[in-house]
Specification:
Blueprint: H1 4-13, E1 17-26, E2 29-36, E3 42-50, H2 56-71, E4 80-88, E5 91-99, E6 104-105, H3 106-111, H4 118-136, E7 152-154, E8 160-162, H5 188-204, E9 213-214, E10 217-218, H6 228-237, H7 249-256
Antiparallel strand pairs: 1-2, 2-3, 3-5, 4-5, 6-7, 7-8, 9-10
Helix pairs in contact: 4-5, 4-7
């Protein structure tokens, strides 16, 4: 029998899934690798405990986001399979079931000794901006709100996935969050900041919070060896004020590729 949170999750899902191990944890919940008893396939099972069983608003948000996740179709986003809730022991637990992204998060790659080149980092950024262009074009726009190395999975062949979409509860781990998120608001430009912060980690091995700051701006140039166009791009992506960043994920992607600005 699994231990700790895994044991709780196993009791809650019963015979429907077999918990294999933990994939990660955050303020928004825990994610496990599990085997679907119906198909025999390995899936990612995210577990979120609702503090108060009668918290109807939180449950409504979770169920709505489950439906939204089911409508997303992008090769860089693991396919959403199902969502359900379990009532037990006086509490409500909500589960999201998605395809398992084969690989390790970027922070685990760095910890294992991977040292990406500037080209590698630009490739990760281009991938994230492509996914964000898709998400932000949804009606209403779908914000990720927690772009960080732990939420970008890289396979051995270099393929990438963006995971942990649909985090209803705001994370208190703010290392990669834009300044406005610390004030409780998020917008598309907040996700672009998260891309820049993730790139900074890949280039330095340090989170933005570990680098010097002047007021709200990260002073990263003395710590990064990269081509000047990439440094200039980071200056804008990491601007403290959202209106000083790129106008959209697509605009950020075009700038990263060195393409001319689209005509107004």
């Amino acid at each position: 029998m699994p231990e700790g949170g895994s044991a709780d999750a196993q009791r809650e899902v019963g015979a429907r899934f077999t918990i294999v191990g933990a994939l990660g944890a955050s303020d928004g919940g825990e994610t496990f690798e599990a085997v679907d008893a119906k198909t025999g396939e390995h899936v990612a099972l995210k577990r979120l405990v609702v503090t108060h069983a009668n918290d109807r608003r939180t449950l409504d948000l979770l169920e709505r986001e489950g439906r939204t996740l089911g409508s997303l179709t992008h090769p860089g986003i693991p396919r959403h399979r199902d969502s359900f809730r379990v009532e037990a022991a006086g509490r409500t637990t909500f589960f999201l079931v998605q395809d398992l992204a084969p690989g390790q998060p970027l922070d685990a790659w760095i910890a294992s000794g991977w040292r990406p080149t500037a080209f590698d980092v630009e490739r990760v950024a281009a991938f994230l901006l492509d996914v964000l262009t898709y998400l932000h074009a949804c009606v209403p726009p779908f914000l990720h709100r927690d772009i960080k190395p732990a939420n970008v999975v890289r396979a051995d062949d270099g393929r990438l996935w963006l995971v942990d979409l649909g985090a209803v509860r705001a994370s208190t781990n703010t290392e990669y969050h834009a300044p406005e998120q610390l004030q409780g608001r998020a917008e598309p430009a907040s996700d672009i900041y998260g891309v820049g912060a993730t790139m900074l980690f890949l280039l330095t091995g340090r989170s933005p919070s570990e680098l010097p700051h002047r007021e709200l701006r990260v002073i990263f140039r003395p710590h990064v060896h990269a081509p000047e166009p990439l440094l200039t791009w980071l200056d804008r992506a990491l601007a403290p004020l959202p209106e000083k960043r790129f106008a959209s994920a697509n605009a950020a992607l075009r700038a990263l590729r060195g393409e001319p600005r689209a005509a107004p």
